[in-house]
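Recall that a protein's primary structure is simply its ordered list of amino acids. Everything else, from secondary elements to tertiary packing, is in principle encoded there. The following example makes that idea concrete.
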Amino acid sequence: MSRLDPFIDLLIRESAAALVLETGAAAALVKTDGGTRPAMQRALTTAQIVGACAELLPAWQRENFSGADAEEFEYQAPAGRVKVKFEVLPDGARMTLEPLAGKAAVGLVPAGKNIIAPVPAQPVPEAEQREGIPAERAPDDPAEAMRQLLQITVLNKASDLHLTTGFTPCLRVDGDVVPLDGYGQVPHERLKEILFSIAPEKNRAEWNARHDTDFAYETAESRFRVNLFADRHGIGAVLRRIPTTIMTAEEMGLSKAIIDLCYLQKGLVLVTGPTGSGKSTTLAAMVDYVNRNRDDHIITIEDPIEFVHPHKRCLVHQREVGSHTEGFKTALRAALREDPDIVLVGELRDLETISIAIETAETGHLVFGTLHTNTAPSTVDRIIDQFPADRQSQIRAMLSESLRAVIAQTLCKKISGGRAAALEILIVNGAVANLIREGKTFQIPSIMQTGRAQGMVTLHDALIDLVKRKVVTPKEALAKSVARADMKAALDRLAGATPLEVVQAQGQS
């Protein structure tokens, strides 16, 4: 759903003539008598308007839309159908949405439940501007309040919902944490009631005993991976939204080199990156590809189960740590007796789990796993450093034989809104295997530079490609780079002899 759907609902419910979004102004409803009233509090930027328009465009137009040209089309929102007109202004952009009579549809927001509400516009000093998401205060019933928060999360296409004692709820949208304006602060006992309304009994007991617990929760619109914790203020939570529909490898545009990994009969394939970089989404797409194209047995070990894989060509067993098994290492040892072809390990979090995963890959199984490392070469070092010094030589030899590939993923903000993945791909060929065995992993980036024909891609090249295709800004590419001097020089070459003023102006050089 588009983040504008709640505002379109407001437009239709109030029988207004139009909803106008213009650079430098707050979104406003145009009444039938010609008057206007604000529909939100914060002034909009051109990038926000372009991103919102891109979400409404038909799929076949979306990829080529940059905001440089005018567009006019129709969009079917849950509340009804609207005519959308996008205009390019000398100092920004304007988007006008007009309702089309007789095209009403059933919305997600129940009658009488005005979840997204207008807030009177207030001037905000330039330095303090932070776009919030307008929302009403919660209903008294804790379960209803939780349902409302999850619905707002889905409506705004947020990746995470952050709940903090004594502070207003926040959403992570396109990488930024933004508050729910008008919702108000939530005290400890009230927030605990809201969160415990969805927590299973065993997780309530675990939080009371340890002040940490994880579980999954599902609504009609989405699944959520929930972590409850305690800090100095009281209870807190982060709810990661997991789409109920798995994006396919084709929809994600995964390269042939990555697709080929799905046909491996044995070996270790790692998807790495910081928290929230989309590792689970990429792994789910790869497992789904296997599920659609092979006749095998897949076992996943997760904490908790995130994407749900139905049986297709493959038989799929998904086991959740804490519910179906004691831990990753226990389930991984048991998997060897369960006739698997492919094993997915949600997180290689300790030495014993890593050791068993390598052994499993060596004994003729394909193992997928994740690690929290930023680059492909550093992943190799991270694995080896987990082991005592007297075992590292042995692990280097084992890893050189079993490791097949490392995909290091970084999410970048797109110019048109949303986020794009920059994928660094290391394919372990004979040369890379020798470097791992001999402890010369610092030379791996050089092999990656010369291995493009085999599908290898460095993070530097992946970011430059996104800039060339005008998917991300030079400033964003520089911010995500791990070799800033090299990236700055490459971006300067792309821009010609002129320095990248936007980067220098932001103090990023």
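The chain is about 35% helix and 25% strand. The mean pLDDT is 87.
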